[in-house]
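Q: Could you fold this chain for me?
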Amino acid sequence: MKRMSLTGTASRRVAAGLAITGAMIAASLLPASAQPPSSEQPDNYTWLEDIHGERPLAWVNAENARTAAVLEKDSHFAPLEADALKVLESPDRLAIPQFRGDAVYNTWRDAEHVRGIVRRTTLDDYLKEKPTWETVLDYDALSKAEKQSWVGEGLSCLQPDGELCLVALSAGGEDAVTLREMNLKTARFVEGGFVLPRGKQTVAWVDRDTLLIGRDWGPGTMSEAGYPITVREWKRGTPLESAREVFRGDIKDNGYGDRPFVLVDAQGHRASMVQRNLTTFESEYYLLLPGGAQKLGLARKTSVSGLLDGQLLVTLDEDWTPKGQTKTYAQGSVISLDLDSVKKDPEQLKPTLVFSPTAQEFVQQMDTTKDHLLVTTLDHVQGRAYVYTRSSAGQWTRKRLPVEDNQTVELVTSSLRNNRFFIRLSGFLTPPSLCLGDAMAGAVQVAKSQKPLFDASSDVVEQLEATSKDGTRVPYFVVHRKDMRYDGANPTMLTAYGGFNIAMTPAYSAVTGKLWLERGGVFVLANIRGGGEFGPAWHEAGLKTHRQRIYDDFYAVAQDLVTRKITSSRRLGILGGSNGGLLMGVEFTQHPEMWNAVVIQVPLLDMLAFEHLSAGASWVGEYGSVSVPAERSFLASISPYNQLKPGVHYPEPLIFTTTKDDRVGPVHARKFAARMEEFHEPFLYDEITEGGHGAGADNKQEARTRAEYFTYLTMKLMD
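A: Sure. Below is the predicted structure, expressed as structure tokens.
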């Protein structure tokens, strides 16, 4: 299925949309029923919404200095930072492969290559213990030559040969990128080649001389949510502004914009398509044909995600009955559609079932080789992997690949030239390994195994369950010492995400292992509703005004940990970022007595204003809108910024954000901290400049950030 497209966002399913350029819903434009109730606290900190303003940055610098004096002066900080950097730059890390043409590519960072390099070798050489790499692109050298702090955000290559690519360059880790054409064969940027200036944009190769581009083309080409609603076709050698419009959505579209992509298979079939995002989770798909864009008769909650042997592969996130048929395909199913038949009649679709979910098993990833479909699933949060084969009669059969329990299974890369692929296996205590697979034989064998980067010999993993407020059973993982005493005195870090259909699974975090587990800490991952661990219904159970279920699930896990005497509120800390940062803020305000440490990372916190802050308007499908009275009332009831109260004894939180976060933005964190300051509540605040929607733009920045987190957790839970 190779998608020849590139976007400047980190993930298509998380809160990772394009930046909002202006306020979308001003209070003065709301209906009377949606006006702020007079009992709500006035928002005195809108001045902090001027992200790069002199006064806000002066406030940020003062808070940064105050926090650094506490955390970086602590005796734990320097050794933790050194350990974190050693782990992040370890030469023993796995070099994650990407098939491009006949070569294997890898992006690598270490002490010598701070911003990273793109390098390549042959498959045979890659399989050796110490491959001989050829550098294709050096981001450090490019940054130095151009006096710009470039961060590489990936390559989008013309398939199937992979010779021509668009290189995405981000200034300091922003989602907005500059795109430049590179010839991988010569390892040089193409003179006079395609160049797209900085922006939140999605680009797809049609052929060697043609691109499909979704971006800001000027007035009338962006939605009210701040996303592109037009896709244009750009021919080599012509001015960008002369690109021909091939698709236009509507300014009322409130999703992630109109996204072009091109699907290619090994048999030579190609499908140029546009995904029109109507809301956060609802889309329409269009085939770009000589006669114009033709809409496919699919349900709105679907994902067209691949092409194999002329068959479009589609995942259903809601029940669907095709037009003119009586059979209904269940939510969570995967179907195939014959591309030639779709071109002839895009409305009357005739699907073939590929995968049907069970009460416990749901699809996570799909990819294709030359002749086969690869699928990973979660079966009660246990990773599974399969090879699917389409028979001459058009039916699909599958073979399960041998994968042990308590590991995350990830499809890494596959080749259209043969049936080779790599999957990565990892667990909380199991260093990642790469398995080279042969889809034709339905077999995998370990090709690379990472050496342990922390001592896990004394630890063990358990999967337990808590009962939420409404009786729902919520699974969670606990990583702890084998000889842990059940006396309530164990320093415990609990985390979760709980949103956007994202599944949280066991993964090897060398930094957490080195800085927390090795030092006797307990780590807990909760699989709460809102995520994708149990399919679309698990996610939808926590949408909009039902989100309190998510927060109840998390609190239930915390209570269960205390009931089992694994920990106590004195020794219990919580940590989460982005939507997980909102989770932290809600738990902080709803149950302040339950936690002794709260790390709030790159968060949403002002849920009455989120729609006009950065990319917030694109997440209305997840959170709801203040323009809907019932949803506004609920958002006001859970919004951490609005629920902070004077006179309440809150734990001292650590609030982290970055100035260059153009996804969620730093404003939520700033305003929350300022209101805590107003109420004379203690807090720690750190806002670094670079890093985008993450912990830093390079390993050194990330090591410092992680060291701050664990210094804080040590001070609060261990000391």
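A (continued): The radius of gyration is 25 Å.
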